[in-house]
Amino acid sequence: MTALAATSVDLTALLRESDVTRVMDQLDTELVGLAPVKRRIREIAAYLLVTKARKQLGLDAAPPSLHMCFTGNPGTGKTTVAQRMADILHRLGYVRKGHVVAVTRDDLVGQYIGHTAPKTKEVLKRAMGGVLFIDEAYYLYRPENERDYGQESIEILLQVMENHRDDLVVILAGYKDRMDTFFQSNPGMSSRIAHHIDFPDYSQDELFQIATMMLREMNYRLSADAETVLRQYIDLRLQQPNFANARSVRNALDRARLRQANRLFGRAQASGQAVGVEALSSIEAADLSASRVFQQSPS
Questions:
Q1: Are the CB atoms for 271 and 278 separated by under 8 Å?
Q2: Cα 126–Cα 129–Cα 131 angle in degrees, nearest 5
Q3: Which of the 8 DSSP states describes residue 19?
Q4: pLDDT by residue (tens digit) across 91-109?
Q5: CA separation, residue 43 to residues 62, 80, 91, 180, 195 (Å)
């Protein structure tokens, strides 16, 4: 007797088997805020899960286009989200390996005739089975330079994005206005990008949360006075040019740790006393207030 074909699928079971929920929880743990980004990632994951379920029931359709564009200012978590997206794609069976190869123009474009194609193809070979993340992708296109080889790299990318979309997902990233201009100048690339996700800047409170999270991961803590100074620092830094969100916060904490180390070392040399865990773990107000930001000059 011929077995009856399945007419339903347990989506909850599929979700449990793929363990995608754990990846989303990890994203929530790793990144403060970014509610609209996380919502879009969940929507894409649900779409991929349902597409997989449809395939199991014989409801075949063309493979979904999964190439993406992440837009936003530096330090807003685009690379981290790309890594989690690759993990989701792998767990749901849309890529074989789930790794991320992160590159910029310099990794793809050569400086002389015959150099670009091998460079681009080598990067694509490494990325196959996973995700190729191209940061500041708009630099691939430089129409003002007639001898630029970026267009050659774009043509190769376009071909591979179309012919190997079942084994490679490309994520383009960069400032929104520049990416919009890039797509206007390269309609072939624009037509291959199915998902556009914009990453908002962090608020002052979110940046403070990110800072305390970073310090906690490095086994540091802020004194009560240092918390006040850090909030003041973030407020002032937000008003200055070239602010890079979490990246700028990390740089500020690195400099504070440097000042703390010099403060402790100087005190130890002067007193000859041992330094305890409490002192080694504490960032004080002076470690932050020495920043040039408080003198109203670039940090």
A1: no
A2: 75
A3: T
A4: 998 999 999 999 999 999 9
A5: 19, 18, 16, 23, 11
Amino acid at 140: L
12-36, pLDDT tens digit by residue?
888 888 888 899 999 998 899 999 9
Distance of CA 97 to the CA centre of its chain: 18
SS3 122: helix
Q: What amino acid occupies position 87?
A: D
Backbone angles phi, psi at 134, to 5 degrees: -105, 105
Residues in CB range of 136: below 8 A, 6 or more apart: 104, 105, 173, 174, 178
In degrees and rounded to multiples of 5, residue 97 shows phi and psi of -115, -40
Phi, psi of 171 (to 5 degrees): -115, 120
Output the pTM of the full model: 0.87
Structure tokens given for 223: 């004194």
The Cα 39–Cα 32 span in angstroms is 13
- Which pLDDT tens digit goes with each residue over 141-155? 887 776 788 899 999
For residue 185, the surrounding DSSP H or E stretch is helix 176-185
The residue type of 267 is: R
CA 69 to chain centre: 11
Phi, psi of 71 (to 5 degrees): -120, 150
Q: Give phi and psi for 35, each to the nearest 5.
A: -55, -45
Q: Which residue spans within 136-263 are E strands per DSSP?
A: 169-174, 195-199, 221-222
